[in-house]
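Tutorial, part two.
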Amino acid sequence: MTAVERRPGRPRNAGADEAILDATAELLADHGYLALTVEAVAARAGVAKSTVYRRWPGKDELVMDSLCGLKGAQFDPVGESVRDDLFDMLVRMRDVWVTGRFGQLMGRLAADGIERPDLYREFKARFVAPRRAVNRRIIERGIAEGLIRADTDIEVIMSLLVSPIINATLTHQPALTDRQLEFIVDTVLRGVAP
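Running the prediction step on this input gives:
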């Protein structure tokens, strides 16, 4: 049989990928990583288990792809001012953590990270690290512009900025307002000013 005569296999259904990733996120939010099974994902997505395994070799890879696809595009700072960029970053983070299931998923993943620290580390490397790199660049720009002391610990600044959002979400407090986020940015910037 020549290449022209060969019949192609069944075409891949892109809708199935989305259904599988959505089902994974829903089950993670409802039950956490440890209780999640590929069988449950397939049933929720309305596909065969073999369909899941054709796309992902196992549960860990499926979970990572599902989580990494949740937040959408990475924040790209406008660059007009360090203060405004930090505020915009916090607003975007708050909105993602509060709307949808991302905050609930993060709570589940943090709890499950006790049992699976390797999975939590991989998630941080694939998902959190690129976003922290953007924050780091904003802070480094603040140092270069003389707004932030050069001897300041950048990792601590980033933690000071984002921790109130994480805390509010994971402890079921109301979402921080824009005014509260401005206060956080202004307080941190005053504390690290030269």
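Residues 1-9 have pLDDT under 50 and may be disordered. In part three we will examine how such features are distributed along the chain.
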